[in-house]
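haha ok so turns out i had the wrong file open the whole time. this is the CORRECT one, sorry everyone. sequence first:
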Amino acid sequence: MFQTIVIGTDGSPTARLAEDAALMLATAVGSELLVVSAYTGDGEARAAAEMAVEETRRRADATGVYTRTAVAEGEPSAVLVDHADRDDADLIVVGDIGLGQRKRLRLGGIPDQISHEAPCDVLIVRTSELAGGAGTGPDYKSVLIATDGSSTASHAAHLGAELANRLGASITLAHVGDELMGRIVLKDTAERLGDPGLPQRNAKGDPGMTIAKLAEDEESDLVVVGNKGMAGARRVLGSVPNTVSHAARCDVLIVHTVGRSPRDLKPGEGAIVEENGRKLAGYRDASGKLTVLSRKCTHLGCSVQWNATLQSWDCPCHGSRFDPYGKVVEGPAQRDLEVIGA
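then structure:
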C-alpha cells in the first residue's frame, strides 16, 4: 500500500491531530513517514519549522515508525506537493483547516490546493472537528467507499478496501445515480473485492452531497473517493470528490486514479493509465517489468478493468478475463489483449 507518507506540520495542535492520523496509517501498513515543514521569512521562521519537524520525529520514533524530515522555504502547499513528487510518495496527509467553502468555486486554503494538485493520494483529516472535541486523532472503524463502476472508481475501491482490512474497519459500498445500474455496480464491486455480502447503499441526488450525507447517516469515520475531476489543469471545482472533500464531516481519502501514468504503477499493480493522451491498461510485475496493453476487450471492444483480487483484466460487459499480461483466461474473448509495450 502506502510506502511513503508525507505529513506537513507547523507544530500547531491541529497539525498534531493530522500527524496522529499519519502515524496510525504508517504503523498499520508499514510506511515510512516524511515530515515536512514550510516557512517564509527569516532565520527565526526556519528555526520554528525545524523545531516542528523534530518534535514530530520524536513522536514517530516512539511508535517505531521510520521517519525522515525536511524543511523548505516556500508556500506550504507547493512545498508539500513538491516533496511528494520528488520522493515518489504514495499519500499526503493534511488537516482541513483552511479548506474553505465549496460554494466559493475557487481554490481555497492549503488543504484545498493540495487535494487538487497532489501527484498521489490525499487524506484530509477533520482537525477542525477534532480540535473542538477530545483532541485525539482519528480512529477509523467504519469506511464508506463510493463507486460508479468505472475503472478509476474500481481502483479507489480496492485501495479503500485494503486499507479498511488493514485497520480492521467495516466497509460499506455506496452508489449515487440510477437505481438499476447502482444495484449492478454495487454487486459487481462487492464481488471484485471478494466479499459479496458487503453492506451496500444505493441513493439518488447530487452525487457529492449525497455521498457526504450517506457517510453521516452511516456514521462513517472515513469516506473513500477517486480524484476524477480534480486532476491538474482538467480539474473541475464542482466535481464529486471536490464536493465530498468540503461537505463530508468525516475524514476523506481522495485516491489518485486520474492522470496516472505507467511510471506510477507499483510492483504487482495494474491500472488504467494515460500515455500521450491515450488510456491504456498497464501492469508492473513483482520484478518491476512493465507491460502496457490496449484496454479494449477483443470480444466486442468494451474497456477492461483491473481486478486486484484475482490479478486479472476483466471485461464488465460479457465476462471475458485476461491475465496481467493480456493472455485470455476466460471467454467469450478468443484473442489476447493487444500489447502496446513491455
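Confidence is low (pLDDT under 50) at residues 100-108, 232-237.
again sry for the mixup
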